[in-house]
């Protein structure tokens, strides 16, 4: 509903504040103009103060990761759960995990693990949890009905200074906050698992989300070391899952057609596309694989189009019979019983990759 425009007059510029437009990266004074009523609203894009309180609603694994990320940024964090025993387990797990990360050399922030753990407290009173919070991150299971219930319970305690985000991976806020008084303060901030080592967060505003809310959310996530991307509007699957499902679709089709084994399909990614995409996106890859992206299109667009014509049309149903056939192959190296062990291995490798990328970035700055 809101459109970002640069302030045209010096008078309005005095009332606005210098900011960077996340659409075009141009610095300047900006206001927001409603596309429907054309009413102008002076906007202040501000970061969240370091002594601000962060509220986490839901004490599961994602909620715990969020708590550790914000504590690493020096923020005081309160985790809410309706079950006090779950809060106790979450706080203990956070303490142990931060200590482990410290020993492994991958702890975020400048404070010790003990100091960061001390910043995280628990609460089984929702009003008390949200009281005084400048940012709220909801982390309940992926269910429209459950999220609708939780946001309805939060609504009376949301203030005009709060940003209220859902960790939803596919559900847009418009599906469950449409009747709330403070729906304009809500949006999606979808992390990628495990978010402590994979910094991407998808910010997806609803049709009524105020631009200030989106900007404040992005600024905070950058402040604590995440790497946010901002979608201009809601779309099914957001960005990451739309790309991910496109990849899985073709992998599924190739396996069903007997073109490659499950092991070799994964190898195409781990030893082919994966190492490249850890540092370059697909569009930059096109740019570097020719004399710029336009030259790439001149050279290779027709060939790519011809290949794409051979694809099976989506959607692709990930059917159980095919999955059971895959499982027989995958279990030769990763039995289902050892999946938790393999997840730990995954997190350790992702931590090492994150450290490598961080060190390389520091050397180039």
From TrEMBL:
- Name the residues annotated as site: Important for catalytic activity: 190
Q: What class of enzyme is it?
A: oxidoreductase
**What transmembrane ranges does the database entry give?**
none
Intracellular or extracellular location(s)? Cytoplasm
Checking Gene3D superfamilies in the record gives: N-(1-d-carboxylethyl)-l-norvaline Dehydrogenase, domain 2, NAD(P)-binding Rossmann-like Domain
What is this protein called in UniProt?
L-gulonate 3-dehydrogenase
UniProtKB keywords: Cytoplasm, NAD, Oxidoreductase, Phosphoprotein
Give the organism the record lists: Elysia marginata
Q: Which InterPro entries match?
A: 3-OHacyl-CoA_DH, 3-OHacyl-CoA_DH_NAD-bd, 3HC_DH_C, 6-PGluconate_DH-like_C_sf, 6PGD_dom2, NAD(P)-bd_dom_sf
Q: Which GO terms describe its cellular component?
A: cytoplasm
| Alphabetical GO biological process terms | fatty acid metabolic process
Give the UniProt family note.
Belongs to the 3-hydroxyacyl-CoA dehydrogenase family.
Pfam families for this protein:
3HCDH, 3HCDH_N
**Major localization listed first in the record, in broad terms:** cytoplasm
